[in-house]
Amino acid sequence: MKRVLVTGACGQIGSELVIRLGKLLGNGNVLATDIKRAPDILKKHGNFTYLNVLDSHMFAKEVVDFEADAIFHMAAILSASGEKDPQLAYQVNMTGLMNALEVSRRKGVQMLITPSSIAVYGPDAPKLQTVEDAPLNPTTMYGVTKVAGEKLLQYYHIKYGLDTRSLRYPGIISAETPPGGGTTDFAVDLYWHALRGKPYSCFVKEDAALPFMYMPDAIKAIIDLAKAPAERLHRRVYNVHAMSLTAGDIVASIRNHIPDFRVEYRPDYRQEIADSWPASLNDAPAREDWRWRPDFGLEAMTRDMLDRIKRKLSD
Ligand code: AKB
User: Fold this and answer.
1) With a 6 A CB cut-off, is 117 part of the ligand 1 pocket?
2) Under a CB-based contact definition with an 8 Å cutoff, are residues 89 and 148 in contact?
3) CATH number (domain holding residue 202)
4) How does strand 4-7 pair with strand 30-34?
5) pLDDT (tens digit, 9 = 90+) per residue, 102-126?
6) pLDDT per position as a tens digit, 225-236
7) Could you say which of 239, 255, 282 is where a domain stops?
8) Is the CB of 82 under 6 A from ligand 1?
9) Domain range for 133
10) What is the reported pTM?
11) 142 belongs to the catalytic site
12) Is any atom of ligand 1 closer than 6 Å to the C-beta of 183?
């Protein structure tokens, strides 16, 4: 991995991934792409270009011109937005991935790495310590596209020898770039509301546990997976887990620092999505094959989130 193209680079994960990859490979070796305008955090970090992942010709041209040998395909519509417009989620998540796979195959890209999600599981999967090979019967379009995407990665690996890699992310909590359209976005909203001194109306129940991870761990996970020697990998897709949290756990942790933070719970359609997902994942294969270990637990994450958001609010 020497020259990488990142799609969805303006997103919650993409924006921080580009910066980390720039530090690793040199800014000139990372091409950040998106259909959105580059956020400030990206502007000072090297190359940024417009790329619509649904346009296969544009996609191929950028890959060839940049001489990319790896693609981090981050562009996707998340679960809650996907339930508002399932056809758009299908188009962006499936056609976008298919274009990424085809351009990789045809233009000699060596590795394609793209996130999957806890959304691949449905209500029939075990709730706790869910393993990779548990039943995959998602009830969201996002989940359906992620299951199909995982199968496509496997297919391209077997049929064409493409080095495809993926990890099932839990909800990601971060301070830099806001998430958009996910069911787990409430976790990030909680921190911002607390620091702005505003009450929060939470769209999931207080006591519904979901798997979460702090952004530095999410970036570490995808980069470590990309760097892992191929011979160490026994699967294309790995679960990664850091902590199982309810909204109430996060609120309690924030209240250790901001005791008068007020929250009311008004679950909406996103509660049903959350209910269909596991509360914790078993990530033993990632720990074994590429030594995955999260660094952050709830308290360390809360301290860091509050510090970062405070700095951003005072900028
Ligand atoms: C979402 O909530 O849709 C995402 C995810 C868990 O993949 N954050």
Assistant:
1) yes
2) no
3) 3.90.25.10
4) parallel
5) 999 999 999 999 999 999 999 999 9
6) 999 999 999 999
7) 239
8) no
9) 4-172+212-239
10) 0.97
11) yes
12) yes
